Amino acid sequence: MKTVVITGGTDGMGKALALTYLRRGEQVVVIGTNARKGQAVLDAATELGADRRIEFIQADLSLLAENRRVIDQIASTHQAVDALVLGARYFRATRFVTTEGFEANFALFYLSRYLFGHGLMAQLDQAAAPVILDLAGPGGELSRIRWDDLQFAQGYNPDEVMGQCGKLSDLLAVAFTRRYPATRVRYVLLHPGLTATGFTGEYDAASAELVERMRERGQPIEAALVRILRHLDNPPTAPLTAFMQDNPIDVHGGPFDSAAADRLSELTSKLLR
Ligand SMILES: NC(=O)c1ccc[n+]([C@@H]2O[C@H](COP(=O)([O-])OP(=O)(O)OC[C@H]3O[C@@H](n4cnc5c(N)ncnc54)[C@H](OP(=O)(O)O)[C@@H]3O)[C@@H](O)[C@H]2O)c1
Q1: Which of 12, 15, 196, 216 is least surrounded by Cβ atoms within 10 Å, i.e. has the fewest?
Q2: Nearest C-alpha neighbor of 212 from the set 221, 203, 220
Q3: Residue 128 in 3-state DSSP?
Q4: Could you tell me the residue ranges of all domains in the chain?
Q5: Is 88 in the pocket of ligand 1 (CB under 6 A)?
Q6: How confident is the model at residue 234, as a pLDDT?
Q7: What parts of the chain have a pLDDT lower than 50?
Q8: Rounded to the nearest whole angstrom, what is the distance from the C-alpha of residue 24 to the centroid of ligand 1?
Q9: How far is residue 28 from each of residues 63, 111, 120, measured CA to CA in Å?
Q10: Residue 259 — φ and ψ, nearest 5°?
Q11: What pLDDT does 46 receive?
Q12: Phi and psi at residue 217, in whole multiples of 5°?
């Protein structure tokens, strides 16, 4: 039986993926902040007769302490993790700083992904064909990164923030594969296409209208699942791959610059100290 860990597994694509794995007879751990959504996943699992194979961990992954608590909990109860799906996201129309002092998107979309990938490495290494799948938006220009203001203290703009989050994911993946050159863990960056999901977040009037239109235009979640499962069911042979919908992206080009990845990695180590 496989063990699949899904950050952001209580809504949208993460939840649909969790239920798919439960139907297949696998074991799933989902993480989210919302107890009601968590209970809905547990109830759906019960209906599938899979209540013994589902675990909901309620946690705010924009807090480092919470990431560490959840990672420790998973590591102490699961010897192997076959798939780690990084899908937690929360849109914020206005800037928010967590109680630990980090800009919330930077913390949730970047630092949490960093901590989970490295933190569950030992468990991933135990699996037969381990995969980390980051649901993001790979391949944008490196200029999207505000190196001198990574947490948008000046001029917060949600679109720019989300663009930067995608870039940080790319560089995190590059740094990861550089740090573990001999690992069997396959790192996949995937933009599954615009999808009608929960779009969890706090929106102002303008962004709420925008997101409503995105929901109308978005593909059904089932279409995104096909793209996601393609990689999880048949992990690529290359250590790092990236896809924009069905199209592979060159992970050796400028947007995946290894010097920039090292730079981000060093900055992150300092921040986490
Ligand atoms: N939808 C798209 O068109 C699209 C396109 C490209 C990439 N993606 C990426 O795909 C991933 C999934 O997107 P989605 O659209 O399916 O998302 P969604 O429906 O909005 O769900 C987001 C998930 O993140 C969880 N979450 C939010 N804040 C959290 C926090 N502080 N700590 C822990 N969990 C938190 C939510 O759970 P709670 O509410 O329980 O906290 C929920 O389970 C995201 O990374 C997104 O960037 C989406």
Answers
A1: 216
A2: 203
A3: coil
A4: 3-272
A5: yes
A6: 96
A7: none
A8: 23
A9: 22, 22, 15
A10: -65, -40
A11: 98
A12: -85, -20
